[in-house]
Amino acid sequence: MTDRPFGPLPLDIPAPGSSFSDLLESVGAAPKLTLPEGAVSAPEGTTVLALKYDGGVVMAGDRRATEGHLVAHRRIRKVFPADRQSAVAIAGTAGLAIDMVRLFQVELEHYEKIEGLALSLEGKASFLARLVRGQLPLAMQGLVVVPLFAGYDTRDESGKVYTFDVVGGRYEETDFGSTGSGSRLAKAYLRTVYEEALDGSTAVEIAVNALVSASREDTATGGPDLRRGILPNIVRIDSSGLEEMSDDVLFPLAEAAVESVR
Q1: For residues 130 and 103, is the Cβ–Cβ distance under 8 A?
Q2: 243 beta partners
Q3: Of 3.40.190.80, 2.60.120.10, 3.60.20.10, 3.20.20.450, which CATH number belongs to 42-260?
Q4: Catalytic pick from 2, 34, 46, 179?
Q5: Domain boundaries, given as residue ranges, for the chain
Q6: Is 47 a catalytic residue?
Q7: Which tens digit of pLDDT belongs to each residue from 208-221?
């Protein structure tokens, strides 16, 4: 018999249920992150956004990560599948945000295996809010993680967008949402062009344009780099599931946006 956390649960520990992080905590294997005193610097992910269309939702993110006034990475991924019908995008301290996404993915898979059915879309958003709230001590030290969540709700057959605040507050958006350093600029563009009952292809085009618009004024937001082939990460989610937009689809949209968006 091996020592914990890989051995059997002691008899005095209650069953953790369908939460994977509760399981880790019950066996004493929950990760503990300690930070040195003083200022801590780490690469930051910037602008991500999501918008609803008729029957689904589109989520997009630029590819730049910054560290202070410098570009830390030019090809960072900020939009990730959460499961077959939802996606999560990251803004804030990149390393912590990516770890949060990985834990969130495992949580959803673990819940489905234990319960035999997928968590509802609202339940997924609520659990992500719990993960954000758990990061509050790190946020107080300047290591902030604020995700964006979107997916297809099978109950009313529509796309939904959820935004969060640093203390774990969860908010369902009516039409679109954005977070990160260029979020205000992206939302300003979306307000001018968004219409109800958009089709999926138009929503993807609008998402590309909104990121380009934000990159014009926000230096932390990376616009498409056509010469290097650096394009946004964009996914589309509807009743058929999650589809990642290929570079062949995005390149002409990015090329047109770079020329036309002011």
Answers
A1: no
A2: 236
A3: 3.60.20.10
A4: 46
A5: 42-260
A6: no
A7: 999 999 999 999 99
